[in-house]
Amino acid sequence: MKIFKNIAFLCIATLVISSGCSLDRKPETTFSDASFWNTETDLKSACNRLYQQLAGYGIDNRADDSYGQDAGQNQISNGSRAVPNTSESDWNNPYDQIFTANNILEKGGKANVSEDIRNRYYAEAKFFRAYYYFLLVKKYGDVPLVMHTLDVGDAGLQMPRTPRAVVIDSIYADLDYAAKWLPLQSALPAADYGRVTKGAALAFEARVGLYEGTFAKFHGTDEDYKVNLQKAVDAASAVMQQNYYSLYPSYSGMFQHEADGPANKENVFVKVYGSNAIQNGTYTNVIVGHDNSRNMENGRFAPTRNLLSYYLCTDGLPWGISPETVPETSYNSIFENRDPRLGMTVYQMGEEAYKGPWVPNASAVRTGYACKKGFNLDDWNNLGKATVDKTLIRYAEVLLTYAEAKFELNGSISDADLDLTINKLRDRVNMPVHLTNSFVQTHGLDMRTEIRRERTVELALEGFRYDDIIRWKTAENLLPKDILGARYSADEWTGTQASSLNLTPDSILIVEPASKRVFDASKDYLYPVPLNEISLSGNQVTQNPNW
């Protein structure tokens, strides 16, 4: 692994950050190991690097819910990617953070602190170690399990891949430790907002359990899917039983500045952004900022028609089947009589941040739909200085995890559990119809499909879709299809017209035809291992099947 080639200089100088996360900080390169690792401040400062390196806002066009300009992600989505020759961030970055976590766990014993304090920061390190191993497992399956720092010449540098189930067991062990020693969110000082808590560890364990349980169930692996699903149920239930977390009153507001900070009890774990001052509406001295709203506007990702099709009509029936389906005679027809979350996720023609006319196959917003969820005009006006926090785990996900895990574990779910979970999400947006067993039976629906639909809609464009269709083993059916956009009408698309348009007989924009999209189920459910990682390991690390 490339990470190990650089460990000679990865001392404490790499462990200190300069972020805006209200974390205690010391300048980089100030300390050596000999003078560090002595106090609680040292342990906290060492852990701070883990927060700095935590990925925040990003682009995810790997699935069928969005499309954009990132060639690498489009190649994953359409099946045209090749085995990389050199190491990629998908492989290297997690191991960088795992090294940092291992370093803290090995050297933190020197600190003159109580065991409770030491264990609290060990718990932070173990949470992040589990976090990054899960990223690796999702993409590569079996990966080398490195539980201590390695030096030049260490035999562990040529470690083979560890079986997936063993890595997952290690993840569970780290998260159990973290849940035991991390503070409750309710006990976290405001100045520490953004640090991991007991609730975050349990919620993440629920995420791992659901992913592994359903992956094992639908891919037929050797893992006991019921054990993993039970872990998901138990961990999600433990979060719910804390009686601390709740849904933020406004779904659209959940992704705006108004929802930032500890007062929002839907936030289970966030990456905190911030600035030192705001003068006359302009951000100044931004410590950590992002460009999320600009990315929405410039076409780096745009919702697809496939995503819009998942939103129910207000009678609780699927769009296209429901008698409330409105014929598409205009661009905005597709938004009528739909789950309110659709209008909170995708812009309609004429809204403030998306006023026509527009050329549908231009470089920006190629699908003809623009993302509204999380768009902030003030942040858009401050390039590189946007400061809306990025929610990494929110309580809505915990509720969805509980519902899906209960169903997949038992083959059924009670109305009481639906009321505890999915129907709370519907109530927040005043969706008129609840999901119940009798409603599903009366209308000939499928409960699994409806639970998955709710997850797709509630978590739309938050980076879950690709992982979901991978674990459900539905990517082989969904990804080879046309990527479709908005309905085109020359009367509505006034001004400069596109030079050419690829349209269906119903005048629906074909962004990428199925003829250019493939998914090889024998290999594409896992990423290829970079060739130089195989070489650096002395061929101990092997390639994934059929790559």
Automatic annotation (TrEMBL):
Residues 57-210 form the SusD-like N-terminal domain. CDD domains: SusD. GO terms for cellular component: cell outer membrane. Gene3D superfamilies: 1.25.40.390. It comes from the Bacteria. Residues 71-90 have a biased composition (Polar residues). InterPro entries: SusD-like_N, SusD_RagB_dom, TPR-like_helical_dom_sf. It is found in: Cell outer membrane. Residues 68-90 are annotated as: Disordered. It holds the Pfam family SusD_RagB. Its main location: membrane. Residues 281-547 form the RagB/SusD domain. Belongs to the SusD family. This is RagB/SusD family nutrient uptake outer membrane protein. It comes from Arachidicoccus ginsenosidivorans.
